[in-house]
Amino acid sequence: MLNKAGFAERCFDYFNTVLMVLLMVLTVYPLIYVLFASVSDAGSLMGHKGILWRPIGFSLDAYTNVFRNPMILKGYGNTLFVVLTGLLLNITLTSFGAYALSRKSLQYRKPLMLVIIFTMFFSGGLIPLYLTVKGAGLIDSLWALIIPQAINTFNLILMKTAFEAIPDALEESAKIDGANDFVILFKIVLPLSMPVIAVMMLYYGVSHWNSWFQAMIFLQERSLYPLQLVLREILLQGEANANSGASDGDAAMLAATLKYATIIVATVPILCVYPFLQKYFVKGALIGAIKG
């Protein structure tokens, strides 16, 4: 019986190993494909069919065309401003809101939560949002990409749940020592909630980094374009040149690799941040998933 049980366990382990390797390949290969395609020769790539195991030829023409645009650095600067300033505002306001809602002594706590949750299912839509931003004088301002997204309802609820998991005894002992709510929040609650804070930074940061639609709606001055909108403009220009048949098909071939280069330029910086937050991610994302 022991041998049979040991054999069954080994078969199960082998099956899990093979399955995980296959899942890893399916997950990683699209990223590798994009990387290889971005540095491949455009003409050779267009004639290639099937799986791409390595760059076909080697050419940096797509990256040269992307970074030749003077708006790239400006776009990076605008995006960094939105990400850093937005993160500071997001984490600050979300922390304040979550701390207040996590206090059992807060009056009308349940009605407030119902109103907040209501916004997850119903919204005024794009036109009321545009009129609100315009009425606040934020059109053609990078603040139009920050202030309307200052607090995300789901993130607020996630952080509130994390704050509620902190033992009440810590707060009570701090109050006995004369601590007020600000001291409790900054000296006790936030330091003990670093996993969920890291997850909030990742959620908010990725949202700001990938944002382009609202920039397209609220920004008219090209010097204010964030990176994603600049890359979209480059990509559309490349496709337009390709469709026009300019340069005896050279533009059409370059457009084949240009789209992959824009993906790399847009995603690599935010991917570099993830390893620093990974150790907090699983723990923070599962806050509140198990009820005691």
From TrEMBL:
Localization in the cell: Cell membrane
Q: Which residues form the ABC transmembrane type-1 domain?
A: 76-271
SUPFAM superfamilies (alphabetical) = MetI-like (SSF161098)
Family, similarity comment = Belongs to the binding-protein-dependent transport system permease family.
Instruction: Provide the species name.
Output: Paenibacillus aestuarii
Q: How does it sit in the membrane?
A: Multi-pass membrane protein
Top-rank taxon: Bacteria
What name is this protein filed under?
Carbohydrate ABC transporter permease
